[in-house]
Specification:
Distance between the termini: 72 Å
Shape: globular
Number of strands: 31
Number of domains: 3
CATH topology of the largest domain: Phosphoenolpyruvate Carboxykinase, domain 3
Bound molecules: oxalic acid, manganese (II) ion
Radius of gyration: 24 Å
CATH architecture of the largest domain: Alpha-Beta Complex
CATH class of the largest domain: Alpha Beta
Largest sheet: 8 strands, mixed
Amino acid sequence: MNAPTTNKKLLDWVAEIETMCTPDQVVWCDGSTEEYDRLMAEMVETGMAIKLDEAKRPNSYAFNSDPSDVARVESRTYIASVKEEDAGPTNNWIDPNELKETMKKLYAGCMKGRTMYVIPFSMGPIGSDIAKNAIEITDSPYVVVNMHIMARVSTDVLGLIEKTDDFIPCLHSVGAPLEEGQTDSRWPCAPLEDKYIAHFPEENLIWSYGSGYGGNALLGKKCLALRIASAMAGREGWMAEHMLILRFTSPEGKQYHIAAAFPSACGKTNLAMLQSTVPGWKVETIGDDIAWMKPGADGRLYAINPEAGFFGVAPGTSENSNPMALASCASDAIFTNVVVTADKDVWWEDMGYDCPNGGGIDWKNNEWAQASGEKGAHPNSRFTARADHCPVICPDWEDPAGVPIDIFVFGGKRTSTVPLVHEAFSFDHGVFMGATASSEPTAAALDLGNVSLRFDPYAMTPFMGYHGGDYMQHWFDMGEKLGDKAPRCFYVNWFRKTDDGKWLWPGFGDNSRVLKWMCDRVEGKVEARETAIGLMPIDGDLTLEGLDIAAEDWAELMKVDIDGYKKTLADMKAYLAKFGDKLPAKISEQVDALEARLNG
Ligand code: OXD
Ligand code: MN
């Protein structure tokens, strides 16, 4: 096919990659339905995709990955900044020239026997001031169809690239060249030691090799919209955060915009689509994973969701936990590593009902019976769903100007110690809360080992494109720039358990009660009580009406566990020491102030 662009920079780059990777052919993608249908039909033909039942799950497909390729691989993810000290203690680093030499050897001939797809895409509404134009080159048709849902794939982006002569190049290969006559595997990928997810932040360049899964391969998401974008944002004075964005509207019609950071698989998608149980209040979704935020002309912070779809964790998604996510993937969806039922629908653990007919084809592509006790869906199995299929998508979700953020929420999964909600004393205190957020680990990353508590600044540990100390400083700098227009900061923990393992808080829709308290605080409607860790609700202000929650459970949820915090503080100090002399002085001041309050 003739290239649909005359932009020399782009043509030169595509030619260079073609020469290096030697695909059988090059296909320029246009994001059309025809293209989507054609690639799906080809993948059904080769056995890579399973077409689901048209009546039950219209226009939807299931895929099973290789059992070795099921999640992001943090141990093989690199920030190859020119200077090692710029990558910081949260990132793996290799000298960029050395890494390129290593990867060029792997890329040499790596697309043999395959098609090289060139995908023009925008992160953010096409043409928006906050959006970025990019090109992903990939040899995976699975990546192309997922990118159709997750990003804005369009030839209009080529027009913008011609005007600006600027794009973010993203190169991806599954790393599995095919010899003449060799049959392809269902999910081609390279062994772990050959996988590289590489970022060159000074060049805004992404090179990924060896994995076909999620954030390793859909390069607009974690690689571009978080790692590269956070480095750009740090240089340019804006923010790229691992945050959902929602609009919470009061019965009087007053809108509050909330951006919330939680580590992977801590319920960001559920919160983004929450069904409010506070009468008259409603949530609308703007994004479920990533927020790009810039100060606007009025001095407030405006956020857009750079993505166009949801790449949500399937297990646990049910009519009870997140009916809106289920509705989003009722049609036109892609499922990866779930169970395909006998009647060609999908099922996963904790979907709210037993697997129809007692089993199906599991994520490893084997016959599977639920009675076996084995998991049928991988814990990190995913649905890829169009954001505009979400019944509660906010009418302004694609507003190129974004929405003004009133509230930042941080949190993590802590079964003990951390109470249901507390508010920061100031924006700087909020920056500290975000910097020291901690969680018990999840299944979204392959290789965290056996750690019990993971400090996860701003839920960005695997996604910060530069030194974490500079990252924290950037938050303080943004606070200074925003002044009294900075969002109010809160910390939540929906995951407290009793000693005998019972959840203390119902969570899900009832989390709206906590959001409502935050809005009342912003509005100045309610006072708060000052505690050692922050400002907390006065009894009665956080509405519990209609909730069956025992007084002692509520007391436990609202308790400030001084001893528990002292222990966390000791771990926190050890963790923060990793940032060396790049740890902002303001963080150390906050640590000292917290310690004094805990001892006081
Ligand atoms: C994700 C993640 O996939 O955070 O969103 O791992
Ligand atoms: Mn995420």
